[in-house]
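no rush on this but wanted to send it before i forget. theres a chain ive been looking at and ive put its sequence and its fold in token form underneath. please have a look and point out which stretches look like helix strand or loop to you. thanks a lot i owe you, the record is right below:
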Amino acid sequence: MRCGMVTRCVALMLFAGAAMADVDPATRADGTGAILVSASAGSVVVPLGLLPAPDLSPAVVAGAPPADGLNEAWLSAQPAPEGGAEWQCLTEALYFESRGESLEGQVAVAEVILNRVDSPLYPRTVCGVVKQRGGGGCQFSYVCNGRTHRMREHDAADLAGRIARAMLDGAPRLLTDGATHFHTRSVRPRWAKRFAHTASIGAHVFYRQPGASG
């Protein structure tokens, strides 16, 4: 390997997997950042400008959910989603209630379901919330529409499953301010006049029921 300068050579060796004893942050005399590489032959300060651009591959963005909310890059970097009954119920609810919505719109529906689970006014499980009946119908319309609940659109089902997995694992709820209800813009249910409007996302309008937070 021929390098025009020692520091560039060290940078290339470092990121090519050369065995180095230590890599520590350092500050150059001009106040700019650098990497201090300690090797068997001694130490050298490598200016950050000589280092390769950071790796933004899926392996880097995988891990804990982003603090500012879910995004497609992070979701696609996660393992294939799977889980038990609670995950399945949430996945199906997102698919049948909101698969035509943006990522933000689908996350918002997930927030509503999980906010209900946390509320003393509703069942304490995702499946209980999703399948709850009352008032002459179902809380979620797809449950009572009489159709076979098969998720035939693979990509939409995969995204719903990824969102469900992330939300069940504790992804932040940032979109609906504790909403427990939503409806499409084409209707105006009676309860909408009594509940606090919290958000409007895509085709849905979101509300928080009084007393729902306990």
Summary: The chain is about 35% helix and 20% strand. The first strand starts at residue 22 and ends at 27.
